[in-house]
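Try this one yourself first.
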C-alpha cells in the first residue's frame, strides 16, 4: 500500500469519525506515538497495526483499505 495514501487515509478517517489521536490510540490499543508515526509518514504500519486501527474505526481491514483507495466502504455502498 502506498505509504502517503495510507497515512492520509488513516488521518482523514480519524477526523471523519471525530476521533482524536489519543482516543484512537486508546480504542485501538496502540501507543499514541504509533498513531502519530503512521499519520506523519514516519513509519509504515504492520498488518496488525492496520487491523487494530480499522477495528477502532468499526470497519474491517478491507473496508478501510477500500475507503483509502476509492473513498468508500461496503457499508457506504449499502446505504
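Now uncover the answer:
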Amino acid at each position: 500500500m502506498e505509504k502517503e495514501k495510507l497515512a492520509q487515509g488513516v488521518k482523514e478517517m480519524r477526523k471523519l469519525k471525530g476521533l482524536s489521536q489519543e482516543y484512537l490510540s486508546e480504542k485501538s490499543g496502540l501507543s499514541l506515538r504509533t498513531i502519530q508515526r503512521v499519520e506523519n509518514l514516519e513509519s509504515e504500519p504492520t498488518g496488525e497495526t492496520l487491523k487494530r486501527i480499522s477495528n477502532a474505526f468499526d470497519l474491517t481491514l478491507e473496508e478501510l483499505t477500500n475507503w483509502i483507495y476509492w473513498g468508500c466502504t461496503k457499508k457506504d455502498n449499502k446505504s
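Discussion: Helices lie at 3-16, 21-28, 32-39, 47-56, 61-70, 74-78. DSSP finds six helices and no strands in the chain.
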